[in-house]
Amino acid sequence: MSRNKVRKAFTLMELLLVVIIIGVLAAIMLPSFSGRSEEARITRAMTEIESTLGLALDMFESDIGSYPSTQQGLDALIRKPEGADNWRGPYIKKSNRFEDPWRNEYNYQFPGQHNTFGYDLISPGSDGQLGTEDDISNFDEERQNQQR
Q: Which of 16, 23, 92, 95 is deepest in the core (most CB within 10 A)?
């Protein structure tokens, strides 16, 4: 007695349908993941400006009596500036340039033109251009109003 064994398998149409469904789901999900990546970069830049670099600049100011000049820049946080006898740094661990999450250098100015805290610290944002809508700074009025 021989039995005919019926083999069950997926048809080509069924496999094609599964591939199409996976493709549609990926197309829907991918933009949300890439948006999260941009949100994470913005959050990281805000944190570096307000906390990491801000705290280091405040410690420098506490020791020296003034924030670094625009000419000294953020390098004064890792290398003793000329004439800074009370310098107790380095105030931050950085081995090279001070870059934002988009690999643009932070723009530092003291005295600041916009900030009542004394210095302006700006990330040019994703477009790499200062003075555009995506800049992130320590004087961003809209963000400061949201935190109040």
A: 92
